[in-house]
Amino acid sequence: MGTEERKKREKEQRRNQIIDAAEKIIFSKGLEQSTMDEIAEEAELSKGTLYLYFKNKNELYLAITKRGSTILNNQLAKIFATSHQHTGIELIRMIGQLYLDFVREHPNYFNAFIYYESLNNVEELEESEFAQTCEKHREEALNYMIRALQIGMQDGTIQDNYDPKELALVIWASTKGITTVTHMRSLGHHLEMIDEMEISVESLFESFLNLVGTGVATEEAREKGLTGSHNIETN
Amino acid sequence: MGTEERKKREKEQRRNQIIDAAEKIIFSKGLEQSTMDEIAEEAELSKGTLYLYFKNKNELYLAITKRGSTILNNQLAKIFATSHQHTGIELIRMIGQLYLDFVREHPNYFNAFIYYESLNNVEELEESEFAQTCEKHREEALNYMIRALQIGMQDGTIQDNYDPKELALVIWASTKGITTVTHMRSLGHHLEMIDEMEISVESLFESFLNLVGTGVATEEAREKGLTGSHNIETN
DNA sequence: TCACTTTCTGACTGACAGTCATTTTTAAGT
DNA sequence: ACTTAAAAATGACTGTCAGTCAGAAAGTGA
Q1: Could you read off the pLDDT of A104-150 as tens digits, one per residue?
Q2: Structural domain boundaries in chain B
């Protein structure tokens, strides 16, 4: 009989029901301000039950983080499903744009990412299946970046005198830096100086893509204007 | 009589004594694992006294963060004290190198920076004099970056078709992204995949500087090899 | 209906951030 | 030296909350 299977499915549903509740509470008032009692109430369960499904509060938040990273990676996969239609340098641009769109559409998940990265209790992370998945996704994302660069080196839109792995890491890290600034800004979080500068996120990111574009693009790709819509004239 | 002044000085000393103790405890076991009682004991004071000098635990950690950001900005200032000896593109490189050196020498302060950026309780931050100073330092750092770019646009080593403010923000954010990855890696924190790639921090950062260098440098500066020691040959 | 397992409950515990009435120390006047 | 008022420091106490666990409830299968 399929009882076993049904039970597994139900267990998974409960888990999701708890994560749903946790998101509602934590996204509205922040991790520190949210109590397990509140989350339990929102989930229409008792606090004890939460601990049957998640080892502790951090683990529950990691489950949320995993959700976010799954969304992001699915979108990355979509880009690469049509990778044959694009040049390498275009793919790099598209990945960058994806991160920007993600931080705008899912600021709360992005917050979770930042929190995740601030954790430095390595053992705890290694024990968590959610953290493991997040890590796997990160690796995957980096691999997509590497592939885009390799494609670009093949099609001649990206200089081939870089080590693609190394360059991927550099671009990925820079993209995250830019995305983080964008995010912090949208939070109203400090950095009001940026507002005073009257720089829009769009043009900021455009500059970044151009910078990366001209930095890695071949002369040829640069001349053809493939590196960005606001292409830089090489003098 | 100078009693007033002496008292002020003593008060400042107490404050520093507490921050010293807090650093010892928090740097060794992390913010969450550290209790105010422990810190009080280390400082040879009672817990209550800690609260006479710092509103709460977060505020105390912000004081530590401020220390770190002061160190960083002093070093930035040093670079600019001799700015007339360097071209704009060189200054950009030096700033990047400074961040890398900082994260290596002061990983604990850098941790504090990451934590600081993960806070999203804006009101609390605005009330804290320490957070205010950190914010001021950030603005200063960005201004140094802008100046470096302006110098480079003057001396012809940096393309002048970018908005220096915007570009500064982009490079600054990217630098922080790279630095953060470097830091996380040195923590043993996830990202073991980087180890597997056998990419050294040096070459990683070198790539970044080259990327930024070639992205913003003028053709002329690129040819003269001013953008980096491992200069990229333009085909 | 019974016996057994799985799931759930919520009162309880321990830990810790933050408070405050009280004590101790310091500074200045007489 | 004595008094007094202000400033600094104390640590026992409180409230909150993460996490536990003995027992209740629900589900399963014979």
Answers
A1: 999 999 999 999 988 888 888 889 999 999 999 999 999 999 999 99
A2: 1-54, 57-223
* B1-54 classified as CATH 1.10.520.20: no
List the B6 CA – C30 C1' distance (angstroms): 25
What is the arithmetic mean of pLDDT over A206-214?
Answer: 79
Helix ranges restricted to H, chain A: 3-29, 36-42, 47-53, 57-81, 88-105, 107-118, 122-127, 129-155, 164-186, 192-197, 201-216, 219-224
User: Taking the mean position of all CA atoms in its chain, how far away is CA A123?
Assistant: 23
Query: If you measure CA to C1', which residue is closest to nucleotide D29?
Result: A3
Written as one letter, the residue type at B117 is E
For A71-89, what is each residue's pLDDT tens digit? 999 999 999 999 889 999 9
Contacts of B93 (CB under 8 A, 6+ apart): B209, B213, B227, B228
What pLDDT does B88 receive?
93
| Interface probe, candidates B115, B127, B211, B232, chain A, greatest A C-beta count within 10 A | B211
CATH of B57-223 given 1.10.357.10, 2.70.70.10, 3.40.50.1360, 3.40.50.1110: 1.10.357.10
